[in-house]
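User: My advisor asked me to double-check a structure prediction for MFS transporter before group meeting. I don't want to rely on an old file, so could you generate it fresh from this sequence?
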Amino acid sequence: MPAITEPIPTFDRRPTFRQSFAALAVFNYRLYLGALILGSTGGWMARVAIDWLVLELTGDVALVGIAVALQFAPTLLLGVWAGVLSDRVPRHTVLLVTQSVATVSNGILALLVLTGHVAVWQVLMIAGITGVAGAIEGPSRSAFVSEMVGTHRLRGAISLNATTFHLGGLLGPAISGVLIAAVGSGWSIAVNAATTAIAVLAISLMRTHELVPVPRQPAARGQIREAVRYAWRKPAIRWTLALLIPVAVFGMNLPVLLASAADETYGTGATGYGLYNSLCAGGAFLGAILSSRRRSLRLWDVVGFTVLYGAVTMLAGWDGWYPVFVSALVGIGVTRLLFAMSAEALVQLSTNPAIRGRVVSFYIMVLMGGQAAGGVVMGWIAENLGGQLAFLIAGAVPLLCALVLGASLAHRQELRLRVDLRRPRRLLTVVRRTPLVE
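Assistant: Sure, here is a fresh prediction for MFS transporter from the sequence you gave:
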């Protein structure tokens, strides 16, 4: 079906201030964004609380990695199916059901913790349930943004989503660290149950008749194969997904790394753990603002931000000097957000709306599945080899993969690096060895 594989152009110029915030003119998106900032704050609070709760109950950093894995592993099993579901079933309905499941699950866990009857198996089981809900919700949540704002406002909406999400990430860990130290983990999880309930209400109040119509795909054979062929034929999607694998597995398990740093390397406890998460989230908030003002959206951006992300992550585990460590955490937040924003926006804006749910499911499957595997791997490394070496490995693997891919792309396109000392703004540029003939 030609319409499904028709490419969509990406942006190649700096968006204006008005374009960056155009999505806020849409009523449904304003509801969504308001629910997102509450849900993000509550979600970060619960994430910090659950990771620390597992550590308190067991004293085992590796089990913290398993808790992280259980939240992401269902994506490996359900991710592609969830993408097909997203292209067939109204995404508004999918979000409503999955958020309701999250509300009930978080409410039960909060009750168990507050009444003193919680056991580690219960924490892990509920982490798995919310992981399943998140796996089903992921493709629909990402693709639903374009239904609310349309393709021409999508890049600005993605930047606003990231800014709002990481603003919640800035507040959530700090609040959670205070609550954990003062009254324990239960109240942080209870707040998350309340914020997901608000999200259910916000989704229910949306004006569904104002959503951008998207053709629903009928049940048919070969829809997953069609999406695989589509993604493989587009280098912007293919290589972005390839680079996402090492980043997700090794570089995106900060809960494990930060728990190890707070518990073993620096001995700062729950308060330090909350502070470290806040520093990363603060950097990510800055990164989201920088990302919204970028002129270009190219595969080279994804490669470059991966190199920076790997280098800064390695710096965090360099020599154990505390000022360098906390400074590097801010840099991790900035570069991680710039990478994630470039990768997600490039995949979404390079995909036709009729097949977007399935292609986005590949992105989420790699992201979450990689984090699931990485939670176990990095948990074992942190537990047995130490937190500093874990940070070094978490940065080195993505860095090396990005350098190899960048060298390969440069060789195929016959590119070279040009240094121009007379123009600081264009100090380093990538140019072709042989100019193209028009």
